[in-house]
Amino acid sequence: MSNASARQPVELLGGLKQPDNVLESLDEAILRKKSGVPAWNFFDRRIKTHNEAIGLPVGKVLPHPLAHQAMNDRIVSSALEKQRMIYIHIPFCSTICTFCAFFRQAVGSFDVSHYVDSLISQINRLGSRHSCPEENIGAVYFGGGTPSLLHQDQIEAILNAVRSNFSLSRDCEITLESRLNGITSEYLQGLRRAGVNRISFGVQTLNTEMRRTLGRIAERNHILSVLHESEHAGFESITVDLIYNLPGQTAKTWEEDLNDLASTPVTGASVYSLIPFKHSVLGKNLAEGKEPPLGGIQNEYEFYSTSDRFFTNLDGWKRFSPVHYGKVGFERNLYNTMRSAPIDILGFGAGGGGRVQGLLYMNPVNVSRFVEDQAQQGDQHLFAVDMDPLYPKAMSCFELTDSLSMHESAIPDFLPSVSTTLSKFQEMDAARCQDGVWELSEAGCFWGYNVSAAIAQAIRQDMNTISSQEVNYE
Question: Model pTM?
Answer without folding.
Answer: 0.91
